[in-house]
Amino acid sequence: MTHEQPRNSWLLGAGRQWLLLAADGAIAALGLSAAYVIRFDPDGIPPDYLVQLRQFLPLLVVVRMASIAALGLHRWSFHLAGLAEAVRLLQAGVVGSLVFFVIPLFLGVVGPPRSVVLLEFLITTAFFGALRFFLRAVRPWVVEKRRAQAGPRTRAIIVGAGSTGELLLRDLLRSDDHGYRVVGLVDDDRSKWGTTIGGRPVLGGIDDLPTLVSRRQVEELLLTKPTLPASRIRDVLSLCADMKLRYKNLPVSFSYLHSRISPILLRDLAPEDLLSRESTSFDPEELRAIVEGRSVFVTGAAGSIGGEIARQLVAYRPGRLVLSDINENDLYLLWRELEASHPAQRVEVEVADIRERHRIMQLGRDHSPAYVFHAAAHKQVPLMELAPEEAVKNNIIGTRHVLEMAEEVGAERFVLISTDKAVQPSSAMGASKRVTELMLQGREGRSPLKRTAVRFGNVLGTAGSVVPLFKTQIARGGPVTVTHPECRRYLMTIREAVELVLRAGLNDYGELCLLDMGEPILILDIARHMITLSGQIPDKDVAIVFTGLRAGEKLDERLASEEELRNSKEVVAKIRVLEATAPPPGFADNLTHLEAAAMAGDRPLVLRLLQSMVLDYSLTEQTTAVTAPEG
């Protein structure tokens, strides 16, 4: 039975091909007969030409069937054939007619009149096309009838009438397993306005969306992101902010899709789609060659950045991946996730506090890591303003413990996750991270350990950042809290940030690397767009409240000082190396005093010492109560 089914399938396919060839032969015979009738109407075909018709009819049938077979047109897909197949069909018609016309000349006999040959070509080729494209032409009508019977559909406009938009539309039209009725497309290319694609009109430009949505009662916009830059997506959301629409995004490129798009690929438009920067890509084999078979240690693995570092590293097949954090619950969940996704990979977890030197040293001796990624840190600016001694204990003393462990066990590389808040810091958290950068640079010559601090700005979706906070506030019905209408931040996706961290940290680029994060974005715009994406109207359905800058916060963050930028250079795409700055005089002694002051809880002394170690640290008035959190 198992052998019979493939044989039957082959016979069915071959049978259909022979049937199609037979139909082509019949069409050719009818085409030649019709050509003679048309040529000699109304007097009728003269007897001599009637004999000629009978003589050349078999020749034409053979020539037509041979040309069809030669170009593979008997193996026809009635549902997927398109312009390329139509061109081949026309080629088969031309070739067949030329051969049919030339053979009598070659044999030295009188052939059919040229007018008959031309008429036969037109009639036969037209019917060849009708036979093959009939189902394709009828299918949209059948699908539309099914949709009408299935009930109301979501009225949608496709934003972007380029290659990807056209493919999406055509797939939606030939499929009925979705809930959309596309009323048209919009595009910024004026030359497309007024044209039709797949029977749907290009209604105008993106700026016309508010009018078109209202007039045509549109409920959803389908955005083709590969041809639509993030800035234009933000324009779409701003234009339609007063309308309760849903937004879907097709995030893949035309080159990836080749010739088919499935409606399944459509996903909800996300805040990540609003970033005004192009993602980078690099050869993963570059990192696999460095990581594969080596022991890697990650601190802060239960956090957003540390967890993503672990997820990306495990794909490069390290000999041992050791994940450490004080948060045992999230660490356990990450462990289970990696075990499920990479069952053959050796992943070990260690619950540990980086502030406990003995524990960290013991972990280093147990696991002997070659590479250490240090992502553990206190990062919430307002909370660290209330407890700067805790920022010192965790961010500075904890970092020193991990750094000393890496030196003691002979690790090859140490990678520190830093922040833009370390640049001319106005907060205890930022100052503590700047101290850790200087700490790395102050240990030159102590060991062969290669040290790199990687500095970048805010990352979308991390715990405590604006995106999850805004989502929660919107789900509650508001208000959405924004500190200041002019507050801007550099933003990057977690995935790309960690890709660049791995690349910067595992290569010998320099001691302080900076990730290019594009242009900063207004937090207010993120809030408004997220409300719009939820299908609600900003300031009407969901209120936006300005809470004022919190202690230690700035309106604008900077990724580097002017002096650092002057001496910087781009080593690869999106990664710059900044010239290392020597720690100020007395840095090592002050570090010892700072640890003692933090352990004693002497807050004023902690702040004074931080100022002496980070010369451009500007103290702000300390708050006495925690304000509502916001990014």
Protein architecture, described:
The chain is α/β, with parallel strands linked by helices and 631 residues long. It has three domains: 4-142, no CATH class; 152-269, 3-Layer(aba) Sandwich (Rossmann fold), CATH 3.40.50; 284-613, NAD(P)-binding Rossmann-like Domain (Rossmann fold). The protein contains 21 helices and 22 strands. It has a nine-stranded mixed sheet with strand order 10-9-8-11-12-13-18-22-21, sandwiched between helices. Helix 1 crosses helix 4 (114-150). The longest helix has 37 residues, at 4-40. The two termini are 66 Å apart.
Number of strands: 22
What is the CATH architecture descriptor of the largest domain?
3-Layer(aba) Sandwich
Oligomer kind: single chain
Structural class of the secondary elements? alpha/beta
What is the mean pLDDT?
Answer: 84
- Tell me the strand order in the biggest sheet: 10-9-8-11-12-13-18-22-21
Number of domains: 3
Portion in beta strands: 5-15%
End-to-end C-alpha gap: 66 Å
Fraction of residues in helices? Answer: 40-55%
Shape: elongated
Low-confidence stretches: 1-12, 252-264, 622-631
Largest sheet: 9 strands, mixed
- CATH homologous superfamily descriptor of the largest domain: NAD(P)-binding Rossmann-like Domain
Question: For the CA atoms, what is the radius of gyration?
Answer: 35 Å
Q: Tell me, what is the CATH class of the largest domain? A: Alpha Beta
Count of DSSP H/I helices: 21
CATH topology group of the largest domain: Rossmann fold
